[in-house]
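Hello support,

Our group uses your service weekly, and this is the first time we've seen a run hang past the timeout. The protein is VanZ-like domain-containing protein. I'm not sure whether the cause is the sequence or the server load. Input pasted verbatim:
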Amino acid sequence: MGDRLLAWLAVGLVAIAAFHFFALWSFLYWKFLWLDTVMHFAGGAWAGGFFFWARRRFPAYFAEPARTAGTVLQALAMVALVGVVWEFYEFGMDLVFQRGVSTYELLGQQGVRDTMGDLFFDLLGGLAAAVVLVRRNLPRA
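Update from on-call engineer: The timeout came from a worker crash unrelated to the input. Re-ran successfully.
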């Protein structure tokens, strides 16, 4: 799983980053409001996948949970951390690039509802990745 997952993660990160910058450049986030949701889901799935890769690559840094649920919760905690850091990034970009613009015209942060929705879809993407990766690693009976 390690090398294949790392390859998928590398391709996924490049694809997410490239599409994000393309969407910013071409104003796709404002033309298709649902695109932000898709990108947060993809980012959450990527962060969840990265957790499973890191856990396998560096086992000494991770506590061994008693059950699969513990591993999934650890993955979701990492996804939540990445999601919160991303929300700070969006807030910072608004502060830098939106000086003098009204609160209603901010690019990344449209309020608490937007932030909570973003974090929800981050976690949903992370949960989807966790379910897929846990099921792939269950012993075959």
